[in-house]
Amino acid sequence: MRIKLTVNGAAHELDIEPRTTLLDALRDHLNLKGAHAGCEHGVCGACTVLVDGVAVRSCLMFAPQAEDAAITTIEGVTPGPGELSPIQDAFCETHGMQCGYCTPAMILTAHALLAANPEPTREQIVEAISGNICRCTGYAQIVEAIALAAERMRGVNRPSEEVRK
Amino acid sequence: MKAAPFEYFRVADVDEACAMLAADESARVIAGGQTLVPMMVMRLARPTRLIDINRIVALSYIRADGDAISIGATTRQYLVEHDALIAAKLPLLARAIPFIGHAATRARGTIGGSLANADPAAELPLIAVILDASLSYRVGSASADIPAREFFVGPMTTALPAGACLTDVRFPVWPGKVGVGFHEVNARRSDFAFVSAAAQIELTDDGKAKRIAIGVGAATDCPIRLESAEKQLAGTELDASKVKDAVHAALADIEPLADLHATAAYRRRVAATLAARAIADARAHAQGKIHAH
Q1: CA A68 – CA A4 distance, rounded (Å)
Q2: A48 touches chain B (CB under 8 A)
Q3: Is ipTM > 0.95 here?
Q4: What is the pTM of this model?
């Protein structure tokens, strides 16, 4: 069947079988390999993308169900080529990854969390990423990365101490 | 891990969904897909047609309905999780919702989908049974209601007739000095429960249980009410040793599930402990000593 998908702001038309998951449509039809196929049955969270700004598992949606939604993948969070989003930057700085397999999904989950809650507690960060499995078990630095990103993003557009005086 | 081929239809209303279900007995409704899609990719379910009811706007709502709260079948779990009316009127549902899957599955998962799939480990069937919810469905052009206690008949099996589409679930609101408790044991946060237990209690002004509902989920094929314990404990001050004896007796003749994660003996033992804790929490909550969240 023919469907329309809007991914990272760009409209696409795809010819797919209805059984194609959103994950496979992104990877195999749109060549967006940042959404990772881990368990493919909703357990590991590696395929997490944003659908209308909310983190969902792209392996548990069939692609036709995503028509008319705004989909954001890890390729869509950078402000420009060669740049990093504040959350990606924080993951680099705290070394919030080892093998990197879970990382795009962790970052998108963090995006959804911080959009809804700019000042999360450690407990809320842990709860938010509890659906994303990291088998290198680097959770401590991932939590640190999200807390650092939150702190920096709260500072954006805030006048400096100098200006406020 | 790919689903078998199927035809996909997006329907605009319940009439259309029911007509399509009537035309093909191998067709299935898909709502949030958080239970059905894993079943399909594991080839445990092979529907010929998927009838997508996600865009039926009339099935997504949370509203006061007399002495109850009605929730539309396709209402997403995260909407219920963050709803002020639910928090105020259905504290047990509000308490249990964060235990369902993860934020990313609650973002898609629906209230009706969890009930209709009837996974033994699911939280919503337990809450529906404890609160004596009433489920509404359509089959063809006829509507019918079924009490939650008659709805769940086995693992992934309900009393919903063939060709039916669940439309609404109605949770009675308890007036008065109400407290709730919910506990669950699982391998990691928000993973499938090995055992869950919940209680809702209304206390009299002198601290006795005016009304009490206790249930255990995930331990058996479907959620159960501990009716004998409810009878024994009603009217009492819920003294800890009496609670312990009552829940143990109520669980003596259940047939717990056993798998590689938890033996039947373990599930029975944990069910008793968690039920007692849920009752203690509900009592303290009703007395204003702890908050539900």
Answers
A1: 7
A2: yes
A3: no
A4: 0.94
